Fold this protein.
Amino acid sequence: MSTLINNGTIINEGLSYKGSLLLVDERIKRIIPAGDSLPDAEIIIDAEGMYIVPGIIDDQVHFREPGNTHKGTIESESAAAVLGGVTSYMDMPNNNPATTTVELLEAKNDLASRDSYANWSFYMGATNSNIDQLKQINPSRTCGIKVFMGSSTGNMLVDNPAMLDTIFKECRILIATHCEDEPIIQENLRIAREKYHDNIPFSEHPYIRSREACIKSTKKAVELAVRHNSRLHILHISTEEEIEIIKEASLRNPGITGEICVHYMLFDKSDYDEYGSLMKCNPAIKDERDKKAIIQAVKDGIIKVVATDHAPHTIEEKSGDYLKAPSGLPLIQHSFQIMWDLHKAGHFSEYDVVDRLSHSPAANFKIVERGYIREGYYADIMIFDPNIEDKNTTQNPAYKCGWSPFRDRSFSSSIIHTFVNGKHIVENGKLTGEKGGKRLEFNYGK
């Protein structure tokens, strides 16, 4: 099958230019500058007035399958992903049962091979007792190990210091961490319950899951990674101080990197009174100064990976009081639109947006032949129109949970087409019915 994407503006690897792409089967066959003669193709798509970019790679999602399929499934959430231009994702292990054995990891891969619209990889979850399983991971077929250094959905807390040391010492694969100190959180929660009893306001969330909890845990992870020369990737950074910790630590160990999620660039603690449980997530969204520092870190390239931590819950679950409402926001359909609006607000260049969502995640995880528009690479492509305002998907998102945290917000751009491995998965903003996903491969050690 051959497809010619004709006469769009290609944004890729720091360049923006008019051109066309020829896709043949799964690959990008040719990149054709404007003015060159165009080849014949079975399908021709007119991209006049639109931008052509590499598909987005999201390194942190919670698609909820197995175990909580009333919230989301691999099929439903990967559909939302491709509608948002996300062509590859990495899913977390806090399922039911938790993905803490090779057997359970492969069971999830089997599910994805049947149901996923987008490319995928799954993290293996670390526990206080599964080091033998972690050491069996195939690093060329698995994105990494997830270590919860603070409890979260699924309660996969690794709190044994000896085991943490062993994981960082013996596991020669990327270690992705959720960094919050559990004793600090529990003490803050005790104080809040004494003050408010069962009526804790959501505005207390950044004080319960405090910056001190994040900083202490991040310092611990960094110390372990420096000591053992580990490949450490710190997820969903929420404080100004953690950015500085990672910046300094990377000078001692270049394998220490971090990730920012889009909601930490949209909200700050002043929004809790309006959004309440809808913006409750772990780590907590904190001060305006943290939001500004996070945006600046992404702009400066101190932190180069931007993701979502997509975490759907039903609206009924999220409507509970503070102690009952689970943490997490559904976001994957809107990550690009958020970043593009931040670009239009003057925070990022168009090249920054493509780099942080596509190029840098591919480079960070050493993903084979994805994340760039290059001849011979897999044809994971997103086409968007910067002039069509999207007023619909925030009110009618594709997430199985049926809601988004944006309420009456609209976005300035619309995703028109998405290709995954050369297959036309989204056409004119709607699913075509095709599923094109493949298991991601990695060049660890190269």
